[in-house]
Amino acid sequence: MNETLIAETSAAEVESRCRAAAAASAELADLAAWPPSRRASLLLGLAAALDASAAELAGLADAETGLGSGRLTGEVARTTWQLQLLADVVADGAFLEVIIDHARAAEGPQARPDLRRMLQPIGPVAVYAAANFPFAFSVAGGDTAAALAAGCPVVVKAHPGHPRTSQRTAELVLQACRDAGAPDGTFWLVHGFEAGRQLVTDPRIKAAAFTGSPRGGRALFDLAASRPDPIPFYGELGSINPVFVTAAAVAARGAEIAAGFVGSVTLGNGQFCTKPGLLFLPAGHGLADALAEAVRSARPARMLTPEISDGFRSGARDIADADGIRLLAAAPDGQAEAGPGQAPAAGAVLYTAPAADVTRQPRLAQECFGPTSVVAEYRDEDELVEAAAAMPGSLAVAIHAEPGDEQVSRRLLEVLRSRAGRIVWNGWPTGVAVTWAMQHGGPWPATTGSIHTSVGPTALRRFLVPVTYQGTPAHLLPGALQDANPLGLPARVDGEARG
Amino acid sequence: MNETLIAETSAAEVESRCRAAAAASAELADLAAWPPSRRASLLLGLAAALDASAAELAGLADAETGLGSGRLTGEVARTTWQLQLLADVVADGAFLEVIIDHARAAEGPQARPDLRRMLQPIGPVAVYAAANFPFAFSVAGGDTAAALAAGCPVVVKAHPGHPRTSQRTAELVLQACRDAGAPDGTFWLVHGFEAGRQLVTDPRIKAAAFTGSPRGGRALFDLAASRPDPIPFYGELGSINPVFVTAAAVAARGAEIAAGFVGSVTLGNGQFCTKPGLLFLPAGHGLADALAEAVRSARPARMLTPEISDGFRSGARDIADADGIRLLAAAPDGQAEAGPGQAPAAGAVLYTAPAADVTRQPRLAQECFGPTSVVAEYRDEDELVEAAAAMPGSLAVAIHAEPGDEQVSRRLLEVLRSRAGRIVWNGWPTGVAVTWAMQHGGPWPATTGSIHTSVGPTALRRFLVPVTYQGTPAHLLPGALQDANPLGLPARVDGEARG
User: Fold this and answer.
1) What's the CA gap between A13 and A239, in Å, rounded?
2) Looking at A18, A152, A177, A273, which residue is catalytic?
3) pTM
4) Check: complex ipTM more than 0.95
5) In whole numbers, what is the pLDDT of chain A averaged over residues?
6) A269: region left, alpha or beta (phi > 0 left; psi from -120 to 50 alpha)
């Protein structure tokens, strides 16, 4: 397969694929034709197909991204686990949020007809793949899995950083859809910048999910909002993910914190959306040498794409030029082993500045995608809490504290719970488990909509719309809403959980 | 109290009230200081205060809106029932959606740290009151109740159609907040067009809820989306609420359908968001005389405001000018009993046209707020189903059919479930019960976001944001997330419902 064979998708084809998705939508939404168990089997079939091709996929992705076959094989496993968990979620059926109120004769406002509410698929979803997870946040990644689990056809816009991996994954998704008997139009992959813009404005697309840069995400968000009929745009844009360390934590385990922090900053060469971009340490922390040593020993790696490499260098320059900033340590960039069109390697760079300088310069609290971070030195507990309060929205934040830090811990938790989707205790923001209780979201600019998550079972809620049937004869109701409960679903009936 | 005393709120005061709301936000969000039971008692206190003042409030509102004291007293009762139901919802605690995953040691992607997720208040909410429900969708109406129940401070922008009613209601809300010990800034009322624009762009406001015209709603939606940090804007704009009647239903109960339809069109003088704006009848239905008679006997009433009156007349002219339209019946406008600044009365007007003319002219499927509707005559079942498929999003649709209509009933249900938030069987779209299973929402232009409702317990979800705590010591967790479960909340623990 040759990269030049993967052409940008034409406007006519994008339109035709959206039309096919719309046609598939009604069939997929029909729980008589497509009960939860059948959706689950599609997801499980896809997981099995990815597992069976894991080595091939990891090889393709390593050639395109340089992320290494170990990491990439692990990422395929994470992607198949995600599909398997969502298959469980679909089979569980609680995601349909069935609510049944039988008619009640009463005087006044408590009177009601028979009302039955459930969630149903929103319709065709556009998914914009990310650069940094060629599997978990790409063609068959979390957004695609959640949309298919919810019963929505998906049109994925491939990331240009791994087109062949995307194409091969798409073949597997298409085959899994065929094997499950899903209608044509259930899934398609498009390529190209213009195809991406067209997707979000196509009238047949009813929601969009995006993981990428603040600039690209904002442009697509604005297009979605400016439609004659705006659609929800679930974008993950950029996140600073600050870490707050108390003096007692430094005293108790400073070396461990220095090593853990640099490890989190340089994981995936800093190209994770949860990379900590700020580390708040008490002035006089004494960790400068340990941090510098960790930075110098981190192995430089290729950046994902030339554009991301350029963005990293320009972002790092912006940091270096800010008031009060000093260079703390820099690793050499190493030899560029990159082939044509690939990005060079980049070594980690660590800066430091007084916390007061960080909080008064908003650009220091903006994500710089790549292996860099800023150590912000605070004078006292009040300045630490004020800095936390000055942070923009993040996907995750972390607190390192000791049992004696009761007061500052409570103050930080109080402030931070409205500034991030996830608060990590004595750990690092990187590492996002795929499990029921995960929240991967956060206030702007971390995401475009803080009430949702893009990881975990509750990610389905983005693609589901409530509908209520009033006074409808039982045999005409969807099975999910019948008193006989043929699908065995949990429900709230007349205000109480159905036993 | 004199209307001239209710001045437009200055920019400085709007800002100061938003600042106060932000200050109140943290305290209200704290479930240690403000447990669900305390939020519930605030709502119940407000309900009791409204009940105690029902006669005074209805009198004020009748003077401002002319809706009649019977209807208005009933609306106060509906509003207090709404507060009482939401108090139950808060006490129930399921709305917090607690999910707990204990740590799991495993190889690969199933490994996880301890993760605990719950919903928390989004922060200060701007509520834009509606003209047509001076209680149920106004100062202490559904949006305010849902936001307070969720733990969010509220700044309401009063509707200019009933300023004194709004002011008096606001006094009761403020007193109820004080009685419950809520922080200053929990609630405030502002007046004026510019204050409304300022509210949705104030950086301290984190979400907005609106019920009103498509033009006003779109303008505010665009402001919300164009912020540097866009916020969710939950707007209910305009809805055509079509009704589909089979030939068998006409044969079985034509007179009842004609009377029921005109009753639904003229309820509240057509100034309901769920008024049916289209009635699909089979050609040769023979109901023209019954419809005309019902229209002529409907009592004309004052329109809510001069602006709404103007909008109705211009909208009715647009309908009259459309291709294929004929006047079916018109009631006289009656005597204008309006005082200075009040709108004149308007009589009901009914038009008719072939269904084909309706579906090819989108303006005929746009809401005309007031006592008018169009009877669309279809040739056969296929044309009826095609017309249903051509409808824009609605809050509600209705189907009138008989047991023998199995096939067309299924076809209509299949098409309509993605075009409305509620499907009414052998009934009328007007009448929105406040109960667990209610869905009051729908695809654009019915609302700006079809995944939510503005009525019923699930309306809280609009104002709640997930946060996940990772590896946090039990004594630092919110009580809602502790294994000891001091608040007695339902939860999903390690994937299963907590018994």
Assistant:
1) 35
2) A273
3) 0.97
4) yes
5) 96
6) left
